[in-house]
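Q: Could you write out the predicted structure for this multi-component system? I'm mainly interested in how the pieces pack against one another.
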Amino acid sequence: MGKQKLTIRDIAKMARVSHMTVSRALNDDPRVREETRKRILELVNKLDYRPDARARIFSSKKSHLIGLVVSSISNPFYAELARGIEDKAHEQEYNVIFCSTENKSERTETYVHLMMDAGVDGFIFASSRLHEPVVEKLIDEHFPLVLVNRKLRGETCNYVVLNNVQGAYEITEHLINLGFEKIAIITGTSNLSTGIDRLKGYQLALRDYRMEFNENYVIQGPFTRETGYEGTKQLLTMKKRPEAIFGGNDYIAMGVIDAVEELGLHIPEDIALVGFDDNEFASNQRIRLTTVSQRKYEMGNMSVQILIDHIERKETDYTHRVILEPRLIIRESCGEKLWEKRKNKQPPGSEIEAFGSLDRM
Amino acid sequence: MGKQKLTIRDIAKMARVSHMTVSRALNDDPRVREETRKRILELVNKLDYRPDARARIFSSKKSHLIGLVVSSISNPFYAELARGIEDKAHEQEYNVIFCSTENKSERTETYVHLMMDAGVDGFIFASSRLHEPVVEKLIDEHFPLVLVNRKLRGETCNYVVLNNVQGAYEITEHLINLGFEKIAIITGTSNLSTGIDRLKGYQLALRDYRMEFNENYVIQGPFTRETGYEGTKQLLTMKKRPEAIFGGNDYIAMGVIDAVEELGLHIPEDIALVGFDDNEFASNQRIRLTTVSQRKYEMGNMSVQILIDHIERKETDYTHRVILEPRLIIRESCGEKLWEKRKNKQPPGSEIEAFGSLDRM
DNA sequence: CTGAAAGCGCTTACAG
DNA sequence: CTGAAAGCGCTTACAG
């Protein structure tokens, strides 16, 4: 172990070729005679030589490193997204550096700089407010990046996003079809595009079905379990208590369950509940949460692919947008099996272009 | 944006100093006159110069990159651990590259190589079988690394681990004290130290309380929800059905719940359940799982600290071991509130050294 | 406190 | 198919 680290020149000397030939053999460059390559690779194997990664990165100007910025790695949504990103990246021999901003705005800037110092070739932001100066600066400089499940106001850049408006619309419609009339929503804050879009979908559904929109039934806060918990406590003490709650994500829905159970009430008998995300716990037989599935793993895959294409082709103003369709997952948290299904109503003035609003933002 | 990338020499020229002085100013080297430093930094700011990260890494031989290998990032246990690691690492200006082996053994080797190619300064393995050749090789080469919540047979290296034997012992004891006599365990496979240790704690508790050990009550498999589900189906069809099930982690416990509910039975009325990990969903008011808390975030923090100490001090055979104490979290999945508490039995021949077995492995 | 030299270990680009 | 040259943009180590 005390031996000096081998370099490409040592191998070259022993193989009686120039170090360039060794470099080519190592990089699968076809311009090396088969026999020479074999001799070199045998030597490399025998001596267990591994090229110095840092020198390689420095010379080639490519780190094969992707920076991933999420808002909370302990949120299963991001964990699953990260898995999709990581799998696809490794498939193409890229590594993923990650950081979790924990919704603290100062962190984004610090982390972006830290990652730049690590020499990342590009970024994936799965956590970004509507206005985020560091990110906007990167976009201006045409630094390769893709936004996942977030939109930045007015910026044109790569993004992969779920049609949140539609997902929220469909799940609200599901509640309406089940006969609920007093439907509340507890969702994320208004500086996140997902929060805005889900609220918009909810409102569009109410409007299309000519239902009253009650401002007191809208509660906003961070996308956390606490928001769901506190929001529910608030909603359930109202004189005109809602019959159903739409949790803006499954975390919020989890908090709703906490509050409802604590009050000695039951889902779905006393109050119906729907979520958004389809986290693992939503399918638990004790929970059976009706929710909207986001294809997180695929979103991760796609965003990496777009990013790598951008990095390797070096296109400077490549704007790729992928909008995934949501999928409604019907379980029993709205009492779907308790009550006889009413026949599906059609929205009086159904306008399918409502979903196009994503592009109008 | 088309402008040539600035180098340290450009700044030097403009500041009328050598590029070395610029380098020093940038690295907070005290050997620069205050006035000179100020002039340089102003220029750097004005021109928005950022040193080339890759050149820096190459010259300094340090990437400030830590490789994290977990078995499944979508498992909240690892996600939370990762958060602890990432926070601590960023605090010290290190970045974390991660990968998730998804319990596929070939992946570990591939990923270790990929990460070496990224130039990592050290590794944290939170996923490692008892016998893992690549990892053993790194240990032999004294490459900085720490093992989290895993032990490798016979290897001396840094590790941070929970006293799994004790945690399993205590939770089994809890069930015994509640009066259960037929206690089954569904836990992880025997090539993982956590699986072995939890089974051992269970056995020690039964032994100390002079209870019968029934091999049919032991089910092993991967640490997944499916294992819990299938295992429970199997246990509940036995003629001598267990009264309580110890799920080796909360994921397994989640699968137990799935199966029990599906069969129309109830927890805790028909069968008691305990888990291990204290994942977020365990505390949900609808679940209320009695479990063992692992201080995942702290484990992450500590492992990074040990690793960075190792990297920066360059000690070659630094063996640091941290054994964290588990904490029993009593909720209601064993019917703690349903039945009057029986007075705590004492194990007939209580031997506290039983916990020492961790070191004897 | 400042600088001139040397070099880290590769790759890119050019020549043969 | 192979090689000699040059250089990537910093830092380390030595000199003053």
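A: Regarding packing and overall arrangement: Residues 7-9, 19-20, 23, 27, 51-52, 54-61 of chain A lie near DNA strand C (CB under 10 Å from a C1').
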